[in-house]
Amino acid sequence: MDEKLLEIMCCPESHQPLAKAGVELIEDLNKRIQAGTLVDRVDEKVTESIDGGLIREDGKILFPIRQNIPVMLIDQGIPLAQ
After folding, report:
1. According to the model, what pLDDT value does residue 28 have?
2. pTM of the predicted model as reported, rounded to 2 decimal places
3. How many angstroms separate the CA atoms of 38 and 30, rounded?
């Protein structure tokens, strides 16, 4: 993801800055997706693996990246405290 684009992006809900998620976190989330245990903000199971993610500054929500496109829909944000 382009660094300049990341600088101007923010959380669509809280307007907090975003940062790229680490590789280990993405691997862990993909394992949980495969196991069927990961849910999004509206408690729907996440079924598609993710290529990366953007974490809100407070560390509570991750917005998935799929095919190099950030999914910035509030409902599809993934709570990290599950």
Report:
1. 97
2. 0.93
3. 9
